[in-house]
Amino acid sequence: MMATGQNKRPVRLFRNLNAKIASIPMILVAVVIFLGGSIWTVVYSFTNSKLLPRLNFVGLDQYDRLWSSARWLISIQNLAVYGFFSLIFSLVIGFLLAALMDQKIRFENLFRTIFLYPFALSFIVTGLVWQWVLNPEFGVQSVVRSMGFPSFTFDPLYNPQLVIYGILIAGLWQGTGLVMCLMLAGLRGIDEDIWKASRVDGIPTWKTYLLIIIPMMRPVFITTLVIITSGIVKVYDLVVAQTSGGPGIASEVPAKYVYDYMFQAQNLGQGFAASTMMLVTVAIIIIPWAYLEFGGRKRG
């Protein structure tokens, strides 16, 4: 019996050998670059590195300075507002669009392409486009006023209280199409017999979606949440293209804070501390998702 068990181990080791060999470069990249770079960033966040990294440890001084900075606190507040509304509206609008597409409408491929097309654009292009659209001189405000409403005002990018919502509009325009496609793929995976049974039982369509379809799409929702949230944490291009962090620092976000301190202010220690806080945020998102997905699957 022991000899049989020992014989099986080498067989399992060499099973799918080509796939394992092909994955070695990806594993090395993940371990050396991602994991190694992350550890390097965390270590140097406890130093007073300026133009060049140096191992001169100062304890938690960089983090004290970080959380005492009004600019960092505003960036966290903006990220929370942007993230909350982006998450809610992306899921709701994306699911509603997917539900409409799932009705086998005419020209489905055309509509799907139109909704997904913004995702193919870079965030810089999207930001510039929406900077023009929201510009009060020749954007929405100008068009509405030319239609006979001279008192109409719509200039979110120039209002410190509303600027983050102007950025949110551009983000939703670009990202909702991807959410729609993910949700549509999940809906197309639902067995048609479930819909037939609900119609026979006289269950309203909205209740079928709410009580049957959405719970069955739990893995799709979780994956979509992770994709959206990881994009929210690192939002940078839209802000730079639309407002460059203005007016003042009203639209500052953590990723821009990191970039400015590392490459403009030449304060690597402060940039590393802010990067570490972003890394912690991503870990808080990824670890529970990985546990729910892979831990639950293993127990099952």
Radius of gyration based on Cα positions: 24 Å
Number of strands: 0
Tertiary shape: flat
Provide the low-confidence segments as ranges.
Answer: none
What's the overall average pLDDT, rounded? Answer: 87
Largest sheet: none
State which percent range the strand residues make up: under 5%
Sequence of secondary-structure elements: HHHHHHHHHHHHHHH
SS field, number of helical segments? 15
Defining key terms:
300 residues, mainly alpha, 15 helices, 74% helix, transmembrane helix, ABC_transporter_permease, cell membrane
Quick synopsis:
The protein has 300 residues and is an all-alpha fold. 74% of the residues lie in helices and 0% in strands.
Layout of SSEs?
Elements (H helix, E strand, L loop, with lengths): L1 H12 L3 H6 L1 H21 L16 H8 L1 H32 L6 H13 L2 H11 L6 H7 L16 H26 L3 H9 L4 H12 L1 H16 L3 H6 L11 H11 L3 H32 L1
